[in-house]
User: What shape does this take?
Amino acid sequence: MSELNARPFLKWAGGKSQLLEQFTKYYPKNLFGGKIKKYIEPFLGGGAVFFYLQSQYNFEEIILNDINEELVLTYYVVQNNVKELIEQLEILENKYLEGDMVKKEEIFYEQRELFNIEKKILNYNLFSSEWIGHAARMIFLNKTCFNGLYRQNKKGEFNVPFGKRKKVTVCDKDNLIAANSALKKVKLLIGDFENVSEYIDENSFLYIDPPYRPLTQTSSFTDYSKIPFDDESQKRLAKWTRNVIDEKGAYFMLSNSDPKNVDEFDNFFEELYKGFNITRVKATRSINSKGTGRGEINELLIYNYDILNL
Assistant: This one.
């Protein structure tokens, strides 16, 4: 158990920080008894659930995976080169804060262009010192772009515009150091969610947080990777939870949008996950592209085990 309570160092679409308290009722009871030795996340994102559980339980093994190369690379740098990362972030932060809004915007687009150039030439399978600068740019852009989004176009380029923020903490030194401690013994993987299949056994708990199925056409946001996550992907994921995770005797908890927020007759997930437990939790989300529809809505939790505290 870590004495440092690390928090997500990146903002990610659909982040789970606001739901952590509600989630505590829905974890498998064997987690509380120390019988679960391995924790796995196939869709890492901001990592709110990982950071919370890592601070509460002594897992013998942790595997974190995501298809977004820049995301996993940034975690790798926080894990292995946090001192050098902090140094570069402090330089970017000071440069940004010293300028007026025109200068801030100029710096943002300069860093975004460099980031996209680096994306085309970096080797993600072989560590290079260039990773540190790229990770620093990733965090800088995440903190200074519009609404803290990460979005890619079809070419795989980061294309979120400038956020016009006067004051921003680019370098949260204490949290990065805490995150470094939390990540010490973690195995990081880049790839599709099925990438973690070989690590799953009966002593594993998986938290699965895929790109959500859009509630409406205008709320669609599944392009944090250049590979879309559509209904066919949702069906493939459901089949994998049944034929791999459940078949191996592992425990899983999966989050997704609740279609019944907009259509009471939409049974998409009830049909996909028939036979598993399905419950609803409250979340504050934006339900359209402009963010003006932000409010409390239901989200689904789907799991294959008995829980302790209901």
